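Long-time lurker. I teach an intro course on protein structure, and each term I like to show students one example going from raw sequence to a predicted 3D structure in token notation. This year I'd like something fresh instead of my usual example. Would anyone be willing to generate the tokens for the chain below so I can use it in lecture? Attribution to the forum is fine with me.
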Amino acid sequence: MTLISNKSADFLNSFHFKGPVMAMDEYPIKQLINEPLVIFVCSTTGQGDQPDNMKNFWRFLLRKSLPSDSLQNSKFAVLGLGDSSYVKFNFVAKKLHRRLISLGGESLCDVGLADEQHDLGADAVVDPWLESLWKSLLVLYPLPSGVQTLDSSIIFPRWDVTILDDASEMKEDNTFLNWDTTESAYSTSVLSNDRTTALDHFQDVRLIKLHCPGVDYKPGDVAVIRPHNFDSSVDRLIKLLSERKCPPKLTRLSHIQVVQRDTDMPIPEPLRKPITVEVCAKQYWDLNAVARRYVFNLLASITPDEMEKEKLNELSSAAGQEELYNYCNRPRRTILEVLGDFPHAMANISLPFLFEIFQPIRPRAFSIASSPSAHKDELHMLVAVVKYQTRIVAPRLGLCSNYLASLRPSHNIGLPVSIKKGSFVFPSSENATIFMVGPGTGIAPFRSFISEGITSGKAYENLYHLFFGCRNRNKDFHFKDELEKLSSDKKLSLYTAFSRDQPDKMYVQHVISAHDKELWNYLSKEDIFIFVAGNANNMPTAVRDAFKSIYCKHGGYSNEESEQLFCKMEMNGHYQTETWA
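-- Reply from a regular --
Happy to contribute to a lecture. Here you go:
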């Protein structure tokens, strides 16, 4: 069996299945026809695109020369990890499932469409999907007589971890862990970190400018940054670790070595060299993450306290999911806070299990707000600092946004930043009419595109139409002076919506509808593009409906015809969205 990704590995191991876990592009694709059983786990990026570590794999599967019976001897299952706040929800998983069937593969169960927006996160779909998969596998591969499934409450760590005794002469490695040797990262320094919203405004938004010599990117690309944990979180974890009862004793300067146990479970790049507990706590383990159901199952298996065990078993059970939601997901209780609530379990966590309890810090992507021509050797990001209150006394803090907000020019830390292709593909035609809808921080990619067009002499008010929205003109109008000057210089048609500056709330979709006749003069042309970026709640649908209504009102389209038109525009890249929760 080949398992092309991860969470299901522990589940299937308990049923005596073995197989490598690897990224799709690492798998020798030509061997796929010889695989009797494959499980695929994949996410979706951009405009329904494959993630970077799946692109070559997918390109091969799409070859027209592949016979329709290529996978006739293969059985498979597909699990999609998605976010329903995006328009192309789990698009890649759906396409992969259909393509495997078209090549003769036999699906073991329905495609799983996990949704990060669910109250219980992806687990709400992943857990029942795994149960369904197992039932199908039991029919095909019944356990031999006398062989029992392994107790699911007994969890085996992926790796061994040892303490290095002679670490006195070891030098601390670079300030930043090496996450990926295949991905080049620029070393940047902070030029400025300025708040763009009024001090009395509820939302702190920063324009962060980085000095990045030789950086190469295009408008629409994103800057990828992996944050560090807060010092207070690291200190709290070190204290918890020092109170553990099981050996070995750990301090923040203890050097640990992660050792591979099974070739099917390789060690990630950052952990292949010795590392101190402090660096691991600061840069590898995500101490700010909300604990998943699996963590409670693991803690239940190691706590010696019966009351803790009973509670943890309840929270990890199918019947206890509502209570788990109320305890963990709804108030956004962090993994560190959970460990503090179960001290007996915490005291018995072995060193290898720390790597099962804490997930790695994930990188975050930010739309680049600068232009390669107008802002040479610089990267600009518009970052909303996430801070909110739940019923837990301590405020909830977004890890990456608060990390970035804390950076100052004086720090000079050499922040690694990678550049990746974003979901927006802007047209190269000089005569295309571009409509850009970017309320709030959604303005970022459009500032990059407009600035690049102005620098190259392509920006005109009849070609560039920007719709910006926020709460108040004088409190959160990002790039206010810059945009208003471009408008007065007739290099941009600027439409604004300030939702709280009048009794009736005014949003960007209302402004679009209010200028319907004027906009139809441009929308009726053939070479037009519409881009929408911003919060995914109601705005994207409302904006789409506002544009569709113009086609109905002034173009004579029926509702069905306008919907067909916009679906076609989405397919050919003339209507693109980049939204987030």
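Some talking points for your students: Residues 146 and 285 are 40 Å apart (CA to CA). DSSP finds 19 helices and 21 strands in the chain.
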